[in-house]
Design a protein that fits this description.
21% helix; two-stranded antiparallel ribbon; 2 helices
Length: 155
């Protein structure tokens, strides 16, 4: 019996929610009638663009709005990358990338590091076991120590 009450309560909640949403969707913005209904439409000026009533446009279809996460295209022009990203930035696949630190373009365009490797100074290294890059790029272990699991001198 209690399950039936819960199901009925959920069904009523859905029905009220749908009714409220449909009511707000159906609201149409009404403009006040013109002061003089007998006036005629003004003559069209062919130099002016046609003004259409404003309509909400989907955010995915908006024109002119630039995506802030979009890549800046360099079109194989390294000077564009130099200005934007500094002296280490290069144009690869129409994007400005840093060949010293980018794991997808390590040392050269399209040179992708393996899953466990990191790009340090333009070379793919495993920071878990490399003495020159132990745990992070350019973190060198002291003489006589080994790099194990990204820690120098792990015992």
């Amino acid at each position: 019996m209690e399950i039936i009450k819960i199901i009925v309560t959920i069904a009523l909640t859905f029905a009220i929610t749908i009714a409220l949403v449909m009511k707000s969707i159906g609201v149409v913005e009404e403009k006040p009638p013109p002061a003089n209904p007998s006036t005629t439409f003004p003559k069209a000026d062919h130099n002016q663009p046609l003004q259409l009533p404003s309509k909400r446009v989907s955010r995915f279809l908006q024109q002119g709005a630039r995506n802030p996460r979009a890549a800046d295209h360099c079109h194989k022009d390294n000077e564009v990358c130099y200005v934007q990203g500094g002296h280490n930035s290069t144009c690869c696949n129409n994007k400005c990338v840093n060949l010293v630190t980018d794991s997808n373009n390590c040392g050269a365009c399209k040179n992708k590091c393996k899953f466990t490797a990191v790009c340090c100074r333009g070379k793919c290294v495993n920071t878990s076991f490399d003495k020159r890059h132990c745990g992070a790029c350019n973190h060198r272990c002291e003489k006589g120590q080994y790099c194990v699991y990204g820690m120098c001198g792990y015992a």
